[in-house]
Amino acid sequence: MKQFAFFPGCLIPARHPAMEYAIRETLPKLGIEIVDLEGASCCPDPIYFKSKDKVAWLTVAARNLTLAEDLGLDIFTNCSGCTATLSETYHLLHDDGDLRDQVNERLERIGREYRGTSRVRHIATLVRDEVGYDAVRESVVRPLEGLKVAIHYGCHLLKPSRIMNVDNPDNPEVMERLVEALGASPVRHRNWYLCCGKACQDEDIPNQMMHDLLSTVNDEQADLLGMICPTCFGQFDHGQMKVSKLFDEDFHTPPIYYFQLLAFAQGVPLDRLGFERQRFKPECLRRFESTDASVELGSVATSGTGA
Amino acid sequence: MASKADKNDVVRVDFAFKRELAEKVEGDLANYCYQCGACVGDCPASTYSEGAFNPREIMLMVLYGLGDELIREDSILWDCTNCYNCHERCPQQVKPVEVIISMKNMLADRGFAPTAAERVIQTFLASGRTVPPSPAIDKQRAKFGLSPLPQVPMDEIAKILEPAAEEGGAT
Fold first, then answer.
1. Chain B residues whose beta carbon lies within 8 Å of the beta carbon of residue A42
2. pTM, two decimal places
3. Interface touch B108/A105, C-beta < 8 Å
4. Rounded Cα distance, A159 and A80, in Å
C-alpha cells in the first residue's frame, strides 16, 4: 500500500462526514493507505481567511504542510479549497525566498520550519496518478451503466493551472474518466465552465449563475450532478432549492460527491452512504442495488463494521 | 469608468494607497497590466453584473492610484467570485484576483470585511476551523464509525498569527 498524509480540512469532516466515510472506505480498496495528520488546523480557507491577511494565511498553511513533512509523506486533500490553499502556499514559498523567510520566522516560535518537501495532491489526481483508471474500474462491483452524471469541476481544482497542475482547465478530463471508470456516462453540459459563485458577496450574481448552470444541466437530462468540491456541493444542494424557488423553475438534479458514488459502485449499500441528509437524494441509484454481487458485498461490509 | 477627478478634471493619484498595496503579498502585480482585457471575457462576476464588476477597470484604478474608489465600505471587490479565470487568462501574469485579494486585506485592516468573512475568521480564531466542532457533529461522525473531530492546538496557532515586529506587530 502506498502511504499518503490525509488533510481532511473543515467542510468534509465537520459538515459532510458521509464524504469522509466514503473516502476512508474506498481508498484502501485502491491500494492507498491513509495516514492521519495530527494537529492539523483549517487549511486556512482561500476565500475569507485569505482576504483577511495573506501572510497569516500562508503561515498557517505552511504549518499544516510541515506536519506532513515530519512524516516524510506527500499530503492529499479532499476539498478543492484546501488544495488551492496548500498548493498555492507550496508554490509561493518555493518562488519567493523572502516570503518563505518571513513565514519561517513565525514558525520558529513553535519550533517548526517549512522546508517544501511534501507535495500537495488532490484526491482526484491521487487516484488518477497513483491508482489509475483501470484499477478503479476493477474495484467496481456495481457498474453504473446508463447513469448520466453531469460533471461540475468547480474552479479551484483546475485554476490557476500553473499552480494546481491538475488538468487542462479549458478541456479537463480527469472527472469524466473517473466517472467512466464506474461504468457511468459523464455529461458535459454547456455551462460546465461556470463557477458556483459561493465567494461572491452580491447575492444576485451567484443566483443568476446557478440558474444558468442548472438550466443547461436540465437540458441534458442528467441523473446526477457529479461533484468534487464540498463548497460547490453546498451550493448545488441547498442552493438548488433556493434557485428553484427564486426563479419558479423545477431544478432537482441530486448532487453527489464523487467518492460516495465510487463507494456505492464498490458495493457499499446506498442507505449507509448518508444521503438522507441531502436535500436532493440520489434515489436513481436504487436500481443498481439489485445485483447479486452487491448484496453479497454489502453484507460483508456491514458485518465488518459491526465487528 | 468612474474616476476621481477634481473640478479641473485632474486625477489625483493616491500614492499612499499604491505603496500600501505594494506591501501586500502579490499586491504590486498590477504594474504589469497593459489593459488588454483578457481577464474580462471569462469573468462571471463581470458577465452577471452587466459589467459593473470589471477586473480590467479595477486594475486600471490600481494603476491610476484611485484608492478611494476601491478601499471603502461595501467595496465592489467583494463581488469577485474567486474563480481564477482572470489569473488563467492574463498574458502578463498580473493575477488580477490576487491583486483584488491583497486589496481585500487592506479592507480587512480597516474593518471593512463583510459579515460572512468576519464570521468565518472569528470561528477560525476560536477553534482553528472554519466549521466549528460540536457534539452534534461528533454524533453524526460516530454513525459512520469516524472518530470525534480532533482538537486544533490553538496555542500554536495563536503564536504564529502574531505579526513580527518588522511586519508592524508588537513582538
1. 124, 128-130, 152
2. 0.93
3. no
4. 10
